């Protein structure tokens, strides 16, 4: 806790400032988990690509006036770059974990696999950034993977959930890691988050519209469950989580914020248990602890591998 005190004026003598920071971090973890829970709720009311279409489109359109009037003038090269990042990162990430949830993969397990971003970044850093893994990173990768296998083995539902669907969250996490690393080495000028997020959301919406059309519908469903699900995903999972993330970064360190986000999988598991009666097991929590140990090994082994990526770009939109 001492690492946040210098960032809070008067925090050394004000317990209230510490309490505010703890409440902020708690809200961040809850909103970070909200994307997975919101998607789990929404798939009971609409096809998955229709949900993703209107989540992305609503978010992008709400940000569009701000993106056009606040911040530097948008240049064609930068817009095209962020359209590429939106195609690889946001589209690939959201579609992969949402499809996994739709297929019946436990929501908490999807959150756990999706939270393995540091492992994915570490593995992709060598071919993209020329940064090879050191011994501790290889060990952390192996430990993290072992934890996912432990948790996955405890939740496999043979004959009920297609086995290939368990690979979807991993593919989505690697897609987001790839987009983050490509953006890090891109010559495009960095733009404010509301502009980059707007471009990426609208890009994702255009792609999801094609898949929604193939599913048979692009018009929103006039049903309270669908409207509530989209509202939840836009307000809480997209705007809420990313806003809280950047507020937390200003008041604390990237290392602490990243570590706090590792609490999102158990919170998601508890939400899914309370709301959807998804099973909890000791093996799932054991796998979670093993995975977190592996992630911490990776995160502490080289500052430039994960902390820079998480500090420069929005992390995987929690279900975001």
From TrEMBL:
Claim: Phosphoprotein is one of the keywords in the record: no
Primary location recorded for the protein, binned into one broad class: membrane
A matching Pfam family: EamA
Keywords tagged on the record: Membrane, Transmembrane, Transmembrane helix
Source organism (scientific name): Rhizobium terricola
UniProt-listed Gene3D superfamilies: 1.10.3730.20
Ranges annotated as spanning the membrane: 16-36, 48-68, 80-101, 107-126, 164-182, 194-213, 225-247, 259-276, 282-299
Keyword Cell division among UniProt keywords: no
Organismal lineage: Bacteria, Pseudomonadati, Pseudomonadota, Alphaproteobacteria, Hyphomicrobiales
Family stated for the protein in its record: Belongs to the EamA transporter family.
Segments forming domain EamA: 23-152, 166-299
Any single GO CC term annotated in Swiss-Prot or TrEMBL for this entry: membrane
Localisation per UniProt entry: Membrane
Membrane topology according to the record: Multi-pass membrane protein
Identification of the protein by name: DMT family transporter
Source species, domain of life: Bacteria
